[in-house]
Every structure is written in C-alpha cells, then in structure tokens.
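The material for today's practical consists of a large collection of protein records. There is nothing in a record beyond a sequence line and a structure line. As an example, a complete record with its sequence and its structure tokens follows:
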Amino acid sequence: MSSERVSRRLEDILENIERIEDHLRGTTKAKFLEDDLLNDGIGRCLERIAEAARKIGDRFDDRYAELNLHALRRLGIMLRHDYDAIRPELIWHFVKNELPKLKKMAKAERKVTDSGGG
C-alpha cells in the first residue's frame, strides 16, 4: 500500500475518532449506556476505524503491540456480524481507554507518511 493511501486511512481513523469525541463531549457513562442512538453512532464510527485499520494491514502491529491492532481490525467484523455480542459497557471502555492511544499512534504515523518516511 502506498504511503499516500496509508496516510488517507490514518486520516480516516483520526476523523472518526474526532467524531466520537464530538458525540461524547459532555456525555456521562450512564447517559451513553442508555442512549441507543448515541451507541449506534459510536458503533458506526468504530466500524469505519476498524475498516481503515484493516486496509492499512499489519504494518504497524509490531511497532504498536500494546494497541492490539489485530483485534481492532476484527472489531469491525464483530460490529457488523456479531453485533448482539457487543455490549455498550465494552464500547465505552474501548472509547475511553483505547481510542486516545490509537489517536496518538495515528497522528504520529500520519506525520511520518506525510513527510515521505512511511
């Protein structure tokens, strides 16, 4: 995959993280857990993030082993096909604990690819 395409996928990840942050701004866990519309919106953004990660492939897996990017790529499949197994508590945990780390990684790697280093 070309650096340009990787950069675009990283941008997709960042854009959808920002959408999630916007959706959740001022929202409590309790409100999130009871708001089906909010859950659906966050789930859709996570599907896009997972798809972008799938398109990037495993190129960052070793460098960011703590992120478990393989599991992130599988998340999209779960959201689309095993949606009944996805509990809002798990989504909340993922969004609050894992997305900030993913955002940091995507920003760093986008800088590298944009500068021609990736």
